[in-house]
Amino acid sequence: MDLSESGIVVDVRQKASEVWLAWVNPGRLAEWFGTADGPLDQPSDGLRIDFGDGDFFDVEVVNACAPHQLELRWSFLGIGEPDRISVQVESADDRTTRVAVSDSGLAGPDAADLREGWRDFLARLARYCESGQRTRYQWSPQIAFSFTPPVTPGRELLKRIVADVAAFASPLGHEITVCRSDGAELRLWVAHPEGRTDARLWVEPWHPERVRVAHIGWDEVKAPPARQIALRRDWLGLWLDTLTALGLVDDAAGRRDEPIATPLATPQLTKPVNVVDDSKEMP
What we know:
By secondary structure, the chain is of the alpha+beta class. The protein folds into 2 domains: 2-131, Alpha-D-Glucose-1,6-Bisphosphate, Chain A, domain 4 (2-Layer Sandwich), CATH 3.30.530; 142-275, Alpha-D-Glucose-1,6-Bisphosphate, Chain A, domain 4 (2-Layer Sandwich). Helix content is 26%, strand content 31%. The chain has 5 helices and 14 strands. It has helices at 16-24, 26-32, 111-131, 155-169, 225-245, and strands spanning 2-3, 8-12, 35-36, 44-50, 56-65, 69-76, 83-91, 97-103, 142-147, 175-181, 185-192, 195-203, 211-216, 274-275. β4 and β5 (56-65) form a beta hairpin. α1 crosses α2 and α4 (155-169) packs across α5. The longest helix has 21 residues, at 111-131.
């Protein structure tokens, strides 16, 4: 696999027509990438590719020229300006198809993560096309996303986000403790009926207009896998609904099929958020 500055290239030992169908046919796409709610072989808007754990892309098919060129615009979790994706499918020889993907996000602040993600996805595409076996990952044990709020982010904004997500979570039996606060970064313990997960919110030092959220440990919750996934999905909904209610992202909650159990309203804390001394280290 070649990782260039402009995009990513992988050679697949399969006919170009079969590789093309792996991209545009929902049944085949679900075997290596995610579940699309419609075909990607003609221009269309309002599609979604869902990964089953709460993560999704909102997708527009800009152009589809079978079996060689697919152009998409998509946004992860429906947040922010969509990235433009170009997929080129060409026969390299009688037995090999070359797939070249370019992503406008590779020029942005998340380039390293995107490049690693594309490396993994295209390896899964190649294995699926060559073997016919399902290669899609089951689910991600971490929530991870970033966004650019309409105001300059800082410590006070992070505290407001945490207070409001705690207000949504408390009626559901979940409690948040801020275990460490260091400048424009908050680290959290999140107590669930089944165990504890860890979360972190911070303003990126190299992109001070951008906030990043990471919420990890879902595979360590003492519950069956189906419950772990359900908790992760619900908590991603809590984060998105909170950011939407605060006006920090546009319409994130309305883009999900199933809202969280707590209706959106002005949050009222039933318990105060516990802020531990800033110097205390996380265990």
